[in-house]
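Case study 2.
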Amino acid sequence: MLKNLIPTLGRLRLIVQLLMLFIGVYGSLFVGHYMADKLSSALPALSCAYDQMNGGYCVLIRSQHMLHHQIGMAIARAHEITFSMVLPLLLALVTFFAFFFVLGKAFCGWVCPLGTLQELTGRIGRRFGIGLRRVAPGDLGPPARLRPVKWLILAGLVFLLPLLTGLGVTPHSLGNPYCDVCPARIATTLLTGRADQLALNLGDGWSFGLGAAANWLFGFVLVGALALRQPFCRICPLLAFNAIFQRLSPARLVKPSRASCGNCRMCTTACPMDIPEISQAEGRKAYSEDCTLCGRCAEYCPQDGVISIKWANVTLFRSSRGYCKARVRGETPDGAVKLAAKGPSDA
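Prediction:
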């Protein structure tokens, strides 16, 4: 009886995702808008600051504002560099590290509202029979070639342009360029009943171009997620930002060497990011920069104890043959939900 009450890891993650989606979009309904701002102004997940009802803001807009309004302008006026300017940035980074130390890259796989919306959209697509398209892993092929994109976006739109704007080199409209093109800004505000973020700013060419790019990117993510798992996550600068510090967090994916591993590739098939290393490598190489710690690889690994999710020395979940057999009765590794499915607890 008790066994039937214990959800699978996948169902538990979905519950956490839905809860965090609600908090990330409507959280201030409970604590008030200003209190929500105080609770977290540096959450390492795409929880949009343009959403006036959310319960925690994305660290990327905080970083852009710091670089634009404080660091860049302070360098331009060196005599104004004081602890009053540097301290807020340090506090934001300390807040980020405090959050990140606990969950690490699980913020991407369990907390991020845009990640959850993409997964839910993919479920809708499969329910309506839209064929799943994969970024073929090959031999460290297309998925690996996509990886530089998120680093370029992080370096260019999150760090460089806001800093240059603060220095007076680039126009004011480029002060927070990533947020101006981020699909989470449009997606989460639409969920609150606001459509104003879809409007294009005709004030200048840069603002218009960024707004048009945002609308195009939102449309691409909305349509693409029906057939391609996590399309935006693959180029998300926050994934790159989290990857910089992934070795510092005790939360991690662990895969020891196993001679029989790499033949079935079910873990890569189950991975929403199509990460080839999880089936072809072990140790640190298996814990790729694209990993979101969603745990699907561990759920669908058919061997006992090959893939584990750990926090420090504590094993939170490990693969097992019995769990995998029960899991595939309800959902295939690539995410297709079977009708009249049974969960692992019904096995």
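Residues 2-239 form one domain.
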